[in-house]
Amino acid sequence: MSRIRIWILFLAVSCCACAAPVRDAPAPSESEPSHTIFLVSHGWHAGIVLRRTDLPDSIWPAPEDFPDAQYLEVGWGDKDYYQTPDSHMGIILKTGLLPTASVLHIVGFNGTVPAYFPFSEIIRIELSSAGFEHLSRTIGESFARDEAGNTMSLGPGLYGNSRFYLSKEVYHLFNTCNVWTARTLHASGLPITPASTITVESLMSQARKFGMVVQAGPEPSE
Predict the structure, then answer these.
(1) Contact (CB, 8 A) for 203 and 46
(2) What is the annotated signal peptide range for this record (predicted)?
(3) pLDDT digits over 73-119, tens only?
(4) Where are the chain's structural domains?
(5) Close Cβ partners of 7 (under 8 Å, ≥ 6 residues apart)
(6) Which residues contact 21 (CB under 8 A, 6 or more apart)?
(7) pLDDT digits over 121-131, tens only?
């Protein structure tokens, strides 16, 4: 299973120069950052953690589903693969080779971010108000909505107090979970290159250059 996905990643890397360019966004202020976010590595992909109270409902509707949460973690990925912890070969091949539907995974939690994710590498990133708004709007625009304008919840998520939401974006070889996360960070003005961010390690290595590692990840097994 892992060999097939690694092969797909190498194919994507060799072709990523063909990916569409990403529109530049205003750079965040370095002198007066006013919002803190966290990038959390889960080994295969990464999530973005934000304070729930920083998110106005008009930009990102999901916070109303987690009224008691201090933080929200958001991830994005293939609809079938993300919702199937023990994925079979057919889902894996479809995820890597065909354009597919996608979902957002939102987790609400309290306490410190390292305490909730004790085994993950965590990078703290400071954003200006303008940068945070760009990032929030990028996430908000990913939600699919029904005719009444409401988000479309698909049920409980993978862990903790979490839910899946249908996304309007398409998952494909050049728009993987890590590319989506990098594109979302890039929308805030951060110096990250989404087209070359195929693996979670490439995502985290770029983020280490402008963020601060607050918790190191586990040592790789030999």
Answers:
(1) yes
(2) 1-19
(3) 999 988 777 666 654 343 444 445 567 889 999 999 999 999 999 99
(4) 2-17+31-215
(5) none
(6) 195
(7) 999 999 999 99
